[in-house]
Amino acid sequence: MERRKFIQAAGGAAAAAVATSATAEALPTLTWRMASSFPKSLDTLFGGAEFFAQRVSELTQGKFTIRAFPAGEIVPAFQVLDAVQNGTIEMGHTPLYIYFGKDPTFTFDTCGPFGMSSRQQTAWYTAGGGREIFMEFLKSYGITTLPCGNTGCQMGGWFRKEIKSLEDMAGLKMRVGGFGGRILQKLGVVPQQIPAGDIYPSLEKGTIDAAEFVGPYDDEKLGFDRVAPYYYTPGWWETGSHLSLIIGNKQWNDLPPLYRAALTAASYEAHVMVQAKYDVRNPQALARLIKRGVKLRPFPMDVMKASLKAAKEVMAEEASKNANFKKIYDHYTNFQDQQNKWYSVAEQRMQNFQIAALNAREKKE
Amino acid sequence: MERRKFIQAAGGAAAAAVATSATAEALPTLTWRMASSFPKSLDTLFGGAEFFAQRVSELTQGKFTIRAFPAGEIVPAFQVLDAVQNGTIEMGHTPLYIYFGKDPTFTFDTCGPFGMSSRQQTAWYTAGGGREIFMEFLKSYGITTLPCGNTGCQMGGWFRKEIKSLEDMAGLKMRVGGFGGRILQKLGVVPQQIPAGDIYPSLEKGTIDAAEFVGPYDDEKLGFDRVAPYYYTPGWWETGSHLSLIIGNKQWNDLPPLYRAALTAASYEAHVMVQAKYDVRNPQALARLIKRGVKLRPFPMDVMKASLKAAKEVMAEEASKNANFKKIYDHYTNFQDQQNKWYSVAEQRMQNFQIAALNAREKKE
């Protein structure tokens, strides 16, 4: 009896030892902080980070905990990259183009002006060499990226007065940043940098004439339609804005392979989820806005054409003085041209037919 | 000394016991077989299943092994659903519309005729209630689904002679199945069911006049351009064909939560990867085909309009006699209409402008 017990105990211990070496050692308990560049009120974006963190926890039996903090709680929205670089936080969720001031090359991780659509950006990043070429650029910043959402094509923003032609853009004070602002400047627009919370009062008082934000679902919550009734489309400076998770290279490299796999798979799932939620929420919000009397307007064709021309000039100026920028811009635009050639054959032709058929049906009804 | 050793040993054993209960017990060793409806030669699709299986292994420290088998190795392409239902295999990778004969309602998991785009289908499935409504229908089949790839909008196929108007469709023997075939029948086409390997000789001998397959990348490998030079677009019967992983409900429910999370996250990552790879490969293949002299043609507008009209009739006929079909068709088309209204505002308008600009630039060059 004693001997039998001993053998059982020894067998149990041996089994435990095997199990330990195979699993427990490889599953350290980790707690990471992730700073978001978004407030909680941008719930599709911030929700994407929370969804990601929850999935990572489930994939690691709760041993790898990531807590998402809204913009401002640990660091301000625009300091997420710095905080990851200096190790204040292990990771962040941010659109990298907001670090435009450090190097405009960051733009291509998010979206170029007159850039790719959401699906094209994902194809470039995932299977088109985009991630590889961008990771080379990021080497000196010491960070690794994973995809975590896209807004899809954004809107052109809210205008207090109707824009009937290119002349109406001259002198317009408009809340718009990054390349969008630099390009619009060539059209005579005076770009303004204003935090989200100050847009409404600025439009109300007339301190600014126009403001771009995101799309119907996010814009609706800020109530812009009450102070600027003209809602313009499309937001050519954000044709499919891609969000990234950024992780310090040391933190990334120190992770066991299982945790790197968990971060990667969870990020792709969250990436799909964010775009899907925007796709579900935007049409509903737009329908509500239109019901409330918002005046939906496409930018006049001369505004679109002048903007495209100005965009090409600004991008060429930047490429002439920044080798990293030129290298990634060329790769990005080459990929985009190939995509658009193919889209014009099947994808875009099909959807144009469907939209025309829908319009014809609604006219009859 | 002896006492210290004992304490160390006891501590180690206790730690191992804790680790064991937390992890090793929850990680059973499992080996599953996954039958694909695709041959290895459709490497974007079959590669998606392999990518998924590899990621699941990494997420479970190699304890959950899924082996993907090409069509025909365990069961024929069209018997994957039956094999999962009767437990011959634990899971499959398949487009559910091929089970059209059991119930045409299966179509909506893949793609309706004149249906949604890849991104719209993903939005419907993921966040638009599509998965929930479809899972209700699937209850009686005892399976659970996860997304695993989309081809994007397919091509309209290879034709031996040019189609100049609707009249040229009458009497055409065309390889096309499912709803596409039933709808084209209303235009006078004689649909044919022919396995992939037999399409080329049938076109060569003239036994058939036309054949649809997938898109440039997959079609190129079968060499259709040598026997049917006209390549038509778009494939309105496959506007964004979604692929599913199917798993027996018993197998799914018996899995520990970690494994269900691993299957889910890995499936979304593979879902993105398959579409991204098609997006990278299709434009390259199309450019090669055009260089070889393929005559790219859009279906004449009267063919498109007659096809849409016939599609509405066939879908209405089906809805009148199948309550499941009607319920999901209504949900699907309502979602699609909302999407297209929103796309016409920003997404589609933006991309149309870009494509027009690209065409204008190329004309100049």
Task: Explain the overall architecture.
Two copies of one chain form a homodimer. Chain A has 365 residues and is an alpha/beta fold. Chain A has a domain of 168 residues: Bacterial extracellular solute-binding protein, family 7 (D-Maltodextrin-Binding Protein, domain 2), CATH 3.40.190.170. In chain A, 53% of the residues lie in helices and 14% in strands. A six-stranded mixed sheet of chain A has the order 7-6-8-5-9-11. Chain A has a five-stranded mixed sheet with strand order 2-1-3-10-4, with helices on both faces. In chain A, helix 7 links the parallel strand 6 and strand 7. The longest helix of chain A has 35 residues. The N terminus of chain A is likely disordered.
CATH superfamily of the domain at 27-153 and 240-280 in chain A: Bacterial extracellular solute-binding protein, family 7
CATH architectural designation of the domain at 27-153 and 240-280 in chain A: 3-Layer(aba) Sandwich
Quaternary arrangement of the chains shown?
homodimer
Instruction: Report Rg of chain A.
Output: 24 Å
